[in-house]
């Protein structure tokens, strides 16, 4: 594997840059915050519910009584299913909107799609399925195939209902089950419900005036239309050579698709509100010798090392095993501490933050200079430079994106001054009062992540005991036990970013949650209980525990340029990480394991 040296970063004038960052933020802040986005429902429902990858086969509605329904067949749902199987719970169904397993990797097949973080850490159940990723950053099809591999390996296809969207979830006290209705007319009564919908499941659209007026073609990156563009996720878009294409959005999805659109289209216009910060991709194939050298447990050690870089810090002498843009700031900081023999300074948290901030500013300046080195036109280069701190937005890794702006058939339009694209018309997009005509507009506008939960879940009603809505219960913030169960919502299990632990590999977080869920369901069954629910006191205790460890990072987030990472700059917005237990991811694992090891199910009430 590669040698992981610190990067060479330039000196910076931090106070001057801070001023610049704030000015760039202010330019983009919109009073509507999250509400600037349109939901993919009603006239826009196809942007979410339509499947361009596989025809939906008609079927009869299902009426069913079952033990467990897992909502979602992405990695989270697959991990939950695997853990239930391990616990001996086999009477479950996975209900999935897509036509196969994979979740985001089923839906997102836009050209250039590739993991942006270490595949050896991210792809789940590697040792269990005997699979090793082909390269450090897997392409989208490898991820999708791995989801299928998990499905086949553990025999999960027989448990799945595809092309099915859960519309409502209602707890029924009479039968101690959840009544579940779907878009296919199914009526399923499940004892337990595991929510594995994933954090990035539902596309959203920019609320641009005139969006419905456009008479040309449109689609969202998460529902790529290859019938229109030709090609596949590796590129080769051979049907758009005579087309003028516009793309709105330059986040992770936009950046990956843009080089391929540019290669295929007659002309590509990129509408950019905020530039992404682009690290070198520097992908490499998996080294067989390295694989040969791995000892059992290698993956857990690698994930912990990644966690240390992103959410804690290295121990003196600890190498950076990940060695990419995610770990650059921590790696550079550790190198300086080694040089100066300065590790003792980290005992002071304020000093730690100060040192980290310096490396953050230096690393971002390195990336701005990289833009100058690659992009030939200085004006275009300037527009492509990110002026905000590392982790204000999702880091992006790409070697083809910046050179794309040297192509004669590509135009970059900076719409930061108007806080986004001003207007869409029948024929195209208005820029500075001038209408530009396009054949197609691609929306790379992201997902319902920190918008209202009603929008993200798209399930209504979502009602617990006495018809109480989960959206009301969590209306003023999450209320859970262990980030998983909520009082008034018996037999219901949440996953993802709620009130749990966060780590650099999302799939590891799903594993932590699935272990806990499988244990509770199995215990309830073994003890003959039909209902398991946290008490109000246990829920309140967990909220207090979470508060005890809470970290005030509001200065950092409010100073960031808007995006979903900071709830579009809404000061009281929901963090994309939920309301995490900042006591530490591994500390939470230990806490949950200890809780389970007593066998007391403390804080839960069981009913027969
Ligand atoms: P995103 O990061 O939310 O980006 C949305 C883009 O649309 C932003 O550039 C945004 O500009 C722009 N936009 C929104 N409204 C606009 C308007 N009115 N006018 C002009 N531009 C507008 O969405 P995404 O790129 O799909 O990524 C979402 C997340 O999914 C990522 O952060 C990542 O976590 C995940 N993802 C991962 C991968 C991977 O691992 N390979 C790939 C794709 C996505 P502003 O920045 O100014 O808001």
Automatic annotation (TrEMBL):
Q: Which InterPro entries match?
A: FAD-binding_Monooxygenases, FAD/NAD-bd_sf
GO MF annotations in UniProt: phenylacetone monooxygenase activity
Q: Which SUPFAM superfamilies match?
A: FAD/NAD(P)-binding domain (SSF51905)
What keyword terms does UniProt attach to this protein? FAD, Flavoprotein, Monooxygenase, NADP, Oxidoreductase
The cofactors it requires, by name, are: FAD
Q: What's its top-level EC category?
A: oxidoreductase
Q: What is its EC number?
A: 1.14.13.-, 1.14.13.92
A Pfam cross-reference name: Pyr_redox_3
Record-linked PANTHER family: BLR3857 PROTEIN (PTHR43098:SF4), L-ORNITHINE N(5)-MONOOXYGENASE-RELATED (PTHR43098)
Stated family = Belongs to the FAD-binding monooxygenase family.
What is this protein called in UniProt? Answer: Monooxygenase
Lineage of producing organism: Bacteria, Bacillati, Actinomycetota, Actinomycetes, Mycobacteriales
């Amino acid at each position: 594997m590669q040698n992981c040296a610190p990067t060479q970063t330039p000196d910076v004038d931090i106070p001057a840059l801070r001023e610049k960052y704030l000015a760039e933020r202010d330019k983009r802040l919109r009073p509507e915050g999250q509400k600037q986005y349109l939901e993919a429902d009603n006239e826009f429902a196809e942007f979410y519910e339509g499947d361009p990858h596989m025809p939906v086969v008609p079927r009869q509605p299902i009426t069913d009584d079952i033990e467990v329904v897992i909502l979602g067949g992405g990695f989270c749902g697959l991990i939950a299913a695997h853990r239930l199987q391990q616990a001996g719970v086999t009477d479950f169904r996975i209900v999935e909107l897509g036509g196969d397993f994979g979740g985001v990797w089923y839906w997102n097949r836009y050209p250039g799609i590739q993991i942006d973080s270490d595949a050896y850490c991210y792809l789940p159940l590697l040792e269990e399925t005997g699979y090793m990723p082909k390269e450090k950053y897997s392409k989208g099809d490898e991820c999708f195939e791995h989801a299928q591999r998990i499905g086949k390996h553990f025999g999960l296809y027989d448990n799945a209902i595809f092309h099915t969207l859960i519309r409502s979830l209602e707890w029924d006290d009479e039968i101690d089950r959840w009544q579940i209705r779907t878009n296919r007319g199914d009526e399923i009564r499940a004892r337990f419900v595991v929510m594995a919908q994933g954090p990035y499941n539902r596309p959203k659209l920019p609320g641009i005036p005139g969006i419905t007026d456009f008479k040309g073609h449109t689609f969202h990156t998460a529902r790529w239309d290859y019938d229109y563009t030709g090609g596949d996720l590796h590129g080769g878009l051979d049907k758009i050579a005579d087309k003028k294409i516009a793309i709105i959005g330059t986040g992770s999805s936009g950046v990956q698709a843009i080089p391929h659109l540019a290669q295929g289209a007659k002309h590509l216009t990129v509408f950019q509100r905020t530039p992404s910060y682009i690290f070198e991709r520097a992908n490499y194939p998996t080294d067989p010798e390295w694989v040969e050298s791995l000892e059992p447990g290698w993956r857990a050690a690698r994930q912990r090392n990644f966690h240390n870089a992103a959410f804690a810090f290295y121990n003196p002498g600890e190498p950076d095993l990940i060695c990419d843009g995610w770990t650059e700031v921590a790696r550079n900081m550790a190198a300086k501490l080694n040089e100066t023999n300065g590790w003792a300074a980290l005992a002071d948290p304020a000093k730690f933050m100060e040192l980290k901030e310096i490396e953050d500013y230096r690393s971002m300046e390195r990336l701005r200079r990289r833009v100058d080195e690659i992009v030939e036109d200085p004006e275009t280069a300037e527009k492509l430079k990110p002026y905000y701190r590392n982790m204000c937005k999702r880091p992006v890794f790409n070697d083809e994106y910046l050179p794309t702006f040297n192509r004669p058939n590509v135009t970059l339009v900076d719409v930061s001054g108007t806080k986004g694209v001003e207007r869409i018309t029948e024929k195209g997009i208005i820029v500075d009062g001038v209408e530009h005509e396009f054949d197609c507009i691609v929306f790379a506008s992201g997902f319902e992540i920190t918008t209202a939960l009603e929008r993200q879940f798209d399930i209504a009603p979502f009602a617990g005991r006495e018809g109480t809505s989960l959206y009301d219960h969590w209306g003023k913030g999450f209320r859970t036990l262990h980030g998983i169960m909520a009082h008034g919502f018996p037999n219901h299990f949440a996953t993802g970013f709620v009130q749990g632990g966060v780590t650099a590999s999302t799939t590891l977080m799903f594993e932590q949650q699935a272990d806990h869920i499988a244990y509770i369901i199995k215990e309830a069954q073994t003890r003959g209980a039909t209902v398991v629910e946290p008490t109000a006191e246990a829920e309140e205790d967990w909220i207090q525990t979470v508060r005890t460890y809470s970290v005030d990072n509001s200065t950092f987030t409010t100073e960031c340029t808007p995006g979903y990472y900071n709830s579009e700059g809404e000061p009281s917005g929901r963090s994309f990480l939920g309301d995490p237990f900042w006591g530490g991811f591994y500390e939470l694992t230990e806490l949950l394991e200890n809780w389970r090891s007593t066998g007391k199910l403390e804080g839960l009430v069981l009913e027969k």
